[in-house]
Amino acid sequence: MTSVAAAATADQTDLRHLLRASVQLGLLQSALVGGYAIASKFLAGPLELAVLALILVVGVAATIALPGIWTNARSIEGIAGAAGIGLGAAAVFLVVDVAVFQPLGIYSNRWLEIGGGSNWWYHPVWWMVGTFLPWMGAWVLANQTAKSGHSNPGGLVIGTLIGAAAIMAVAKVAGFPGASFGLGTFGVSVLPAVAVMAVVTAAGVRRS
């Protein structure tokens, strides 16, 4: 009876549900980005590093885990729905950024320098990353469920963070251009780390 009920609630991809989840994730991400930008502008030293690291970890955890949890991803439908939530959240952030963040000038000169004097460089990157991370995260959750009968979001987040730290260290030691022991390199390292998690957790999963 329990297995039947679980199957009935799997892969929640109703359009209204996806749109609502997109707005929720987009607003959460916007709040985190706003907090990150303000902290990087007004804080310095160890306090800045601690606050920014906490915000980054919370943002990574929310982005890779929440969409797959909300769709209860079990098959390609729920996984695709999670990616759709990520894309919708990116659109919500775009609106918040254009309507609130940029007019208020919350970003430091670092953003302008990286973007060659433009605040618009990061939107295409945000769309791609914001879709990729939930997609890979949902794959991991679906793989976990296929093998054990239930997903483990904590394992997804911890495994991804550990993997990102390892990739960052390898990139730095190997002399990869621009790599450093910093939050920027760590954030970029999350991308291959969660992809590796998806590949590793797929081992031994029976495909019907």
Explain the overall architecture.
With about 210 residues, the protein is mainly alpha-helical. It has one domain. The chain is built from eight helices and no strands.
Topology:
Blueprint: H1 2-8, H2 15-42, H3 45-71, H4 76-104, H5 109-114, H6 122-148, H7 153-173, H8 183-202
Helix pairs in contact: 2-3, 2-4, 3-4, 3-6, 3-7, 3-8, 4-6, 6-8, 7-8
Quickly describe the structure.
With 208 residues, the protein is mostly helical. The chain is built from eight helices and no strands.
List keywords for this structure.
79% helix; 208 residues; disordered N terminus; mainly alpha; 0% strand
Query: What is the 3D form?
Result: globular
- Biggest sheet overview: none
Stretches where pLDDT falls below 50 for ≥5 residues? 1-7
Task: Report the count of strand segments.
Answer: 0
- How many discrete structural domains? 1
Q: Which class of secondary structure composition applies to the elements?
A: mainly alpha
Question: Number of helical runs?
Answer: 8
Gyration radius, in Å: 18 Å
